[in-house]
Amino acid sequence: MPIKPAEIVALAGDAGKYKADLGVPNFLVRGFMGGMFIAMGATLAAVCSTGLETSLGPGMKALIAGAVFPVGLVAIVITGMSLFTSDTMLIPVAVFQGKTTWKKVGRAWLWVYAGNFAGALFWAYLMFWGPFRKYGTAELSVFGQSALVIAQSKVLPYAAAGFAGLVSAFAKGIACNLLVNLAILLGLSAENTTGKVLGIWFPIMAFVACGFEHSVANMYTVPAGMMLGAGVTWGQFLIWNLLPVTLGNIVGGMVFVGAAYSFCFKRELSAASQNRPALVERKAA
Q1: 6 with 97: CB under 8 angstroms?
Q2: How far apart are CA 12 and CA 273, in angstroms?
Q3: Cα–Cα distance measured from residue 172 to residue 117, given in angstroms and rounded to the nearest whole number
Q4: What is the pLDDT of residues 115-157, one digit of tens each?
Q5: Sign of the CA dihedral with 254 first, then 99, 21, and 2 last
Q6: What is the CB neighbour count within 10 angstroms for residue 107?
């Protein structure tokens, strides 16, 4: 028996309440792991797509990068870790359903964001000593050269465009997190691991292939390139990428998914709550 859309939104509210009630150490550890997992997916995407623009063309390169990137979010969802971009939807949905408060939203976002950043930076450091340089020497591998170019492409063109660049990064952040949180809802709709993986995979593949901007992925890709010698400063990264992308991610997750779905299924949510025991029994069967 399929899970109804209103039941999916109710489950999202339950997940948001659970996340909002976690303690700070839990936020940090789960966030650290989540940041690492997203960075793993970004690393795999960079490695698998290196050099393909000359042989298969830019479209196929983007498709292949997108096809392998979702492993990070799959790992986060299946193992119960935390990701800032999904929490921009899940915890506000809990607020809309009266299950938590806005104060807890801000608290959770702050500490998960910090944990994600730490985990992403840690993975970048591992890659700096790993596949991006030849046996730890100063010579970059072909994958390191690709990582350097990716880092520059995520900052310098936006800076060169000025205000229009900020608008572009913000818009790409909205589109990215709309798809990320669509993946989260599709994952909640599944009653088994295979269904969750398939539900998550395709929206994430779409956002990566389209070149949208994910704040946590960028916490890894840009610093990794900077470690390798990319001509990007921390100030440039924060102003021209991370800040507008983060704000766009918040709007995409909270407004275009969280608020939209909560509004659409407001009448059905109380009935979905009453049916929750049956739903839990179906998911456990």
Answers
A1: no
A2: 12
A3: 20
A4: 999 999 999 999 999 999 999 899 999 999 999 999 999 999 9
A5: negative
A6: 16
Determine the length of the chain: 285
pLDDT at 265: 95
Residue 272: band (very low, low, confident or very high) from pLDDT cuts 50, 70, 90: low
Q: What is the pLDDT of residues 209-227, one digit of tens each?
A: 999 999 999 999 999 999 9
For residue 285, pLDDT over 80 is answered with: no
pTM of the entire predicted model? 0.93
Could you tell me the end-to-end alpha-carbon distance of the chain, in angstroms, rounded to an integer? 12
User: What whole-number distance in Å separates Cα of residue 124 and Cα of residue 222?
Assistant: 9
Closest CA to 218 of 42, 32, 27, 28: 42
| Partner residues linked to 140 by β-bridges | 133
Sequence-ordered list of residues with C-beta below 8 angstroms from that of 180, at least 6 positions apart, any chain: 73, 85, 86, 203, 204, 207, 214, 249, 252, 253
Residue with tokens 């809309």: 96
Q: Rounded to an integer, what distance in angstroms lies between the CA atom of residue 222 and that of residue 117?
A: 12
Average pLDDT value for residue range 251-261: 98
Token pair, residue 162, equals 């000025």
Backbone φ/ψ region at 122: left (φ over 0), alpha (ψ -120 to 50), beta? alpha
Report the Cα 226 to chain-centroid distance in Å: 21
Q: Tally the C-alpha atoms within 13 A of residue 221's C-alpha that lie toward its C-beta.
A: 26
Q: What local confidence, expressed as pLDDT, does residue 281 receive?
A: 44
CA distance 262 to 151: 36
